[in-house]
Amino acid sequence: MMPIDLNFLVVDDSFSIRKAVKTSLKKFGFEGKMYESDSALRARDFLLLPENFDKVDFIICDYEMPEAPGTFLLEFVRNSEVYRTVPFLILSAVNNKGMILEAITKGVTSYMLKPWEDDAFKAKLEASWVKRRNS
């Protein structure tokens, strides 16, 4: 079972998608902070600030964004001493095996297609939490 006080970082270039993700998280009962970024580069910069170390328990990130793909942020996270064990869920509108394989090889915890059904989204979050905590 996932703790309800987890802090999420939601990264997507679409404001409406970030809002939808946060709405789903609140509906699931999460009460922690919900940080957001409209780009992988700005999300990385946020994570690099020492005052933000240990503030993010879970990252939900779009795959395709204008400045840098979600895998850019994923690589940064997996190579970071601070964040390497943080569950990382990629949300994407594209069902492309090559993109999914790239995300897997770079250490993504889980991959989910947009749009999502809340039950499936919650199940992915819970499975991702268990997977990263057991690895």
What does this structure look like?
The protein is built from five helices and five strands; from the N terminus they run βαβαβαβαβα. The chain has 135 residues and is an alpha/beta fold. The chain has a five-stranded parallel beta sheet with strand order 2-1-3-4-5, sandwiched between helices. Helix 2 packs parallel to helix 3. The two termini are 16 Å apart.
Brief summary of the model shown:
The protein is of the alpha/beta class and 135 residues long.
The number of helical elements comes to 5
Count the E strands. Answer: 5
Query: Order of strands in the sheet with the most strands?
Result: 2-1-3-4-5
Beta-strand content = 15-25%
Which key phrases capture this entry?
135 residues, alpha/beta, 5-stranded parallel sheet, 41% helix, 16% strand
List the helices and strands and how they pair.
Blueprint: E1 8-11, H1 15-27, E2 34-37, H2 40-48, E3 58-62, H3 70-78, E4 88-92, H4 97-105, E5 110-113, H5 118-133
Parallel strand pairs: 1-2, 1-3, 3-4, 4-5
Helix pairs in contact: 2-3
